[in-house]
Structures are given as C-alpha cells and as structure tokens.
Design a protein that fits this description.
The complex is a heterodimer of chains A (179) and B (179).
Chain A: H1 3-12, H2 15-43, E1 49-51, E2 66-70, E3 82-85, E4 94-103, E5 109-114, E6 138-146, H3 151-158, H4 160-176
Helix pairs in contact in A: 2-4, 3-4
Chain B: H1 4-28, E1 39-52, E2 60-73, E3 84-93, E4 100-111, E5 117-124, E6 129-130, E7 142-151, E8 155-156, E9 159-168
Antiparallel strand pairs in B: 1-2, 2-5, 2-6, 3-4, 3-7, 7-9
Keywords (chain A): Endoplasmic reticulum, Hydrolase, Membrane, Protease, Signal-anchor, Transmembrane, Transmembrane helix
Domain Peptidase S24/S26A/S26B/S26C (chain A): 36-111
Membrane topology (chain A): Single-pass type II membrane protein
C-alpha cells in the first residue's frame, strides 16, 4: 500500500463517508476505554492489568510480563500473596510478595513485602518512616499471568517516537481504510 | 497480486493467533488440576528472646528462634504449565494485641526440572521471627504450615496449602544467652 493509492481512497470518499470513518475510529477508542473501565468494575482494582517493569520478582516474573489483578475488599490479604502496591512519592506501583502480616480484631491489617529476587524486605522502598503497608496502599492482588505481552508497552514507553509512529499509523489506517 | 506488506501482515496475524490459541490450550489443560500434596514438618529447637528490633520500631520485641525439619515430595505438582513453585513456611499465631499474625520464616524457589524432593533436617529459618510486640513468650499455639504459590507459563497464580501442619509452643522464659 503506497501513499498514492492511500489518498486516492480518501479523494474518492464523499463527506458522509469521511464522517463515517471518523466515527468508526471514535468507536474503537471508546470501546477500548469501556472495556478498561468495565474491567475496573469487575475486578475492583483501579488498574486491573499491570506490566511488570522490574526484575525484582525473577524468576517468576520478568520485565514485560502481564499480570491480571483483583482487589475484592472481602478477600483478606494473606502471607505469600503477590500484591501490587503504591508508595507515596513513587509513580510506579511495585509488585512484591507479602512476607509478614499482623491483623487486629477490628480488621486493620499491616503487612510487610519483599521481592523474590531481593535479599532484603521492602522497608527501604517505602516512604520515609513508613514501616508497614495497609489496605489503602494496595492496588490489587495478582491472580493471572501472561508472559511477554507487556513488552509492547515497555517498548512504547522507552521509545516515545515509536509510540507516536504506531499510533499515527493505526489512526491513518482506520481513517483511510474502507470496509 | 498481494504486496509484500500484505503477505507479511497475514503471516504475522496468523502466527499470533496460533500462539494465542496454544497458550490458551496450555492454560485450559492444567487449570482444573489439583496441586495439593502432603508435607511433614517438625520443630527441633525453639527459643524466644526479647531484644530491640532495629529494623522497625526500635522497641523491645519478642524474637523467636527455631530450627525445623521438613520432608515433602513435590515432583507430582509439576507439569508443562508450571514454571516454578514458590515454597514458603508460615508461622501463624494469635496474640492479645493481634487476632492473626502470619510470619514467613523460610522460602524456596523450585524451578521445573530442579530437584523437588525436599528432606531438611535441623534447618535454620531464612527470615527473623519478629513478633509485633511481646506475644511470643509462653505462646501455646504457633502453627507451622507449608504453602506454595504456583507460577505458570500462562494462567492463574494459586496459593495452595500443603496438607499437614505442626503446632508448637514457645518457652515461658526468655533466653538471655547468646546463640
């Protein structure tokens, strides 16, 4: 598909056809958003799918692996589970395993995490003065695993030009391509 | 005729759908399997001390020391969709201040293909057994359990308890001698 024939297609479209193409592009974007928001409702997690960004859980999870999370409030956190949590002052959530847990009779829980591949626990990663995580810090619990798929997002984040090129190509393709 | 781009595109799309299909079959063929097996464990030496916890609050907390025996055969748990087992030995107990305490004392990663028959005698714990306060001295019911987190090639990430546990009690006096 060279550029000459591509724009021939556009030239042959009338106004209605062009608007139709723009609308179908909008449909794709909004249905992707709806699926994401729908997953948030179903899983109870603010970020139902995360990409592993570090090697701190190797050999279980490598960079670019995909994790599916749930965060149901009625399911208690227990030791040995893999939690994804946010720490104040860090933008990127961390995926680590719960090592110690203390639960009071009124239901308040505090726990300590550690990466499988790290030799020490996470107290050094937490906010200064923070010794424990609580339920509010948790984004979700890892429930499902899919290898390599997240590599695409890592590539896109590390090479922003690549991201814009891919987005532009997809956008042009959807706008120009006639069914 | 089809252009090079179109041929490449259809080959890539076909390869990706075949991969996705195979991954799903790999997941579906193992999702209903039972991953429970027996484990025998026993404590050998059990001591409790009362020392300042410099890693956390700096207050004097109870610190338990124990050595344990562990016997289990996990060979039967491995199949083509088990990448690794993350084994962990948990001490679970109740104290006046906390309704539930869980502390991981020891863990081990077993990759598929590695020796999965474990027979440990008089093992030291890998992590310190700090209590959140002074609830270990004279505690009559500490339960040791072995669990594993199954990491698949693609699929769910279940945490499974071994059948078999061991309960022990801590001595009623602190040990002051060095060990």
């Amino acid at each position: 598909m060279d550029f000459g024939t591509m724009f021939d297609d556009v030239k042959r479209m009338n106004k209605r056809q062009f608007i139709y193409q723009v609308l179908s592009f909008g449909m794709i974007v909004s249905s992707a958003l709806m699926i994401w928001k729908g997953l948030m409702v179903v899983t109870g997690s603010e970020s139902p799918i995360v990409v592993v960004l570090s090697g701190s859980m190797e050999p279980a999870f490598h960079r670019g692996d995909l994790l599916f999370l749930t965060n149901y409030p009625e399911e208690p956190v227990r030791v040995g589970e893999i939690v994804v949590f946010k720490v104040e002052g860090r933008d990127i959530p961390i995926v680590h395993r719960v090592l110690k847990l203390h639960e009071k009779s009124n239901g308040t829980v505090k726990f300590l995490t550690k990466g499988d591949n790290n030799s020490v626990d996470d107290r050094g990663l937490y906010a200064p003065g923070q010794l424990w995580l609580t339920k509010q810090d948790v984004v979700g619990r890892a429930r499902g695993f899919l290898p390599y798929v997240g590599m695409v997002t890592i590539l896109m984040n590390e090479y922003p030009k690549f991201k814009y090129a891919v987005l532009a190509c997809l956008g042009i393709y959807v706008l120009v391509h006639r069914e | 005729m089809h252009s090079l781009l179109q041929r490449g595109n259809s080959i890539l799309a076909y390869a990706l759908s075949v991969l996705a299909c195979l991954t799903f079959i790999c997941f579906a063929s193992t999702v209903f399997l039972n991953y429970v097996t027996d484990a025998k464990m026993n404590t050998v030496k059990v001591v409790v001390k009362n020392v300042p916890d410099y890693s956390a609050s700096r207050e004097k907390n109870d610190l338990g020391f124990l050595t344990f025996d562990l016997q289990t055969d996990l060979t039967s748990l491995f199949n083509w969709n088990v990448k690794q087992l993350f084994l962990y030995l948990t001490a679970e107990y109740e104290t006046p201040s906390n309704e539930l305490n869980q502390v991981v004392l020891w863990d081990k990663i077993i990759l598929r293909g590695e020796n999965a028959i474990l027979d440990f005698k008089n093992m030291n714990t890998k992590y310190y057994f700090w209590d959140d306060g002074n609830g270990l001295k004279g505690n009559k019911n500490i339960t040791l359990t072995l669990s594993w987190n199954m990491i698949p090639n693609a699929g769910l990430l279940p945490n499974i308890f071994a059948s078999g546990s061991h309960s022990f009690k801590f001595p009623a006096e602190y040990t002051t001698t060095r060990m």
